[in-house]
Amino acid sequence: MKPTNKQDYGLETVFQHSKDGLAIFKDGIFIDCNQSILELVSLTTKAEFIGLGPIDFSPEFQPDGRRSVEKAQEMINRCQIEGSVRFEWIHTKSDGTPFWCEVIITKMTLNEEVLIHTNWHDISEKKDLELKLAEQKELFETLFNESKDSLSIYDGQRYIDCNKAFLNMFGYATKQDITGLHPKDVSPEFQFDGRTSQEKANELIQTCIAQGSIQFEWLHKKSDNRVFWTEVILTKVVLNNVVCIYAIMRDISEKKQLELQLHQRNAELDRSNNSLRNTVAELKEARDQLLDKMASLNLLVAGVAHEINTPVGVSLTGITQLIEETAAIRKSYQQGALDETHFEEFINSADTLSVIVNKNLERTAHLIRSFKKIAVGQTSEEEKAINLKDYVEEVIFILGSITHKANASISLNCANNYHVVTQPELLSQVLTNLIVNSVVHGFSDNKSGHIAISITEQSATRFQLSYQDDGKGISKANLPKIFDPFFTTNRANGGTGLGLNVTYNIITNALGGSITCLSEVNAGVQFIIEFNVKQRL
């Protein structure tokens, strides 16, 4: 384009220095262009550009699926008729990289020749933004429609949209069934506090608009008028310049039922705790009375009285844990963090602790009743038919709260067919003394420990019990003294030194057996016990 006068020169200047890509083509071939269009297609000189046509800088197909050559000719034909046409087009750079352009082609006459002036404006960023917005819109619509939570949009007068979960929750078939309804139309006439649903709904909506968001519990009703509990979160949003309410609803009927059960269970637990506290107080009082009489008894009787502390301690531990767990579950409930899983765990734990406390209190009561009957080398414990493995497992279970706090595990190796008649309470006392000793002495400096118990048959009425832990062991100097009365290395923490003495007397006298101990410092301890039973079944 050669300037012939000042006006032409001015136009030439605009043409050459425009930020948009400008070019002129005739019969589909470029005959002139500016620097901006060269930069758009990543070329350096006009010579590389002139002689090519718009199709040379276009992909084979446009986004609508039409061939670029076919669609370009249609645009040129329109330009010939209309004089100028504006449209969006995908062009390609010289290396084939596509980019979006807004194109204006204008029919012009120069030197009596009909030419086409084209203006290319790069709109790649704009199209990228449009694409991202479209993707976000599609994503939101997918999340909205496919969410498992019930979602709806309310414009201040009526529901204007909802998802499938909303329809399923309320029992409606289509969105048309909901559109136009007010929240009061899907609520009973009155809420749980006695206020009308319409009054309270309007109040909560206004609060949401003022605060931006609000969460609460609400009674809704299904299309068949069945009432159910929901948790509702309202959020203020602006759609098409209209303030709307975006609502998320979740059915919490099961949660409310659990809350009722929890309330009832807590009341029962409170009554149970009070009863257990009274029982423990009575047991402590009985223990104090018995301790006054121990001075006149021999060392074994003193040891037996001492052993009352073990089941009482287990009971106190169990009660304390139950109280702590009750407080924790109540706190979770008050904070709204309680779910069905935590509640079931609490119920299972409460049942387990109740069994542990009950069994230990029964044992304590039995020890007290039998207290006066015990003498050195003699006992009048009742003989019973038991399965050795089942009974030892029960003892281990009863002591579970003690071993749990020490992070100690117990394994048992015993045949299932050892059915015998013996004095099971004595075996229980022996095992209790040994396990408590491991926890208090053997594992006192450890983060965890393990106890292995093995019972094997020596003859029809004689068995061997091997008890082994991996605690800190016993020194060579102290090992010969462990069965002596009142010998203890833990007197500062309340140790009396009677536990193993009582164990020794039970095994050697009442059960007609023997007990030996093998141990080294930092190598654990092993007790090898042999004992007799009255009869084999």
Automatic annotation (TrEMBL):
- Key word Coiled coil present: yes
Keywords on this record? Coiled coil, Phosphoprotein
Q: Which reaction does it catalyse?
A: ATP + protein L-histidine = ADP + protein N-phospho-L-histidine
EC top class, in one word?
transferase
UniProt keyword annotation of Phosphoprotein present: yes
Coiled-coil segments, which residues?
A: 255-300
Q: Which PROSITE patterns match?
A: HIS_KIN (PS50109)
**Where in the numbering of this chain does the Histidine kinase domain appear?**
303-535
Give the Enzyme Commission number. 2.7.13.3
Pfam families annotated for this entry?
Answer: HATPase_c (PF02518), PAS_9 (PF13426)
Q: Which PANTHER family match?
A: PTHR43065:SF47, SENSOR HISTIDINE KINASE
According to UniProt, the name of this protein is: histidine kinase
Q: Which organism is it from?
A: Shewanella electrica
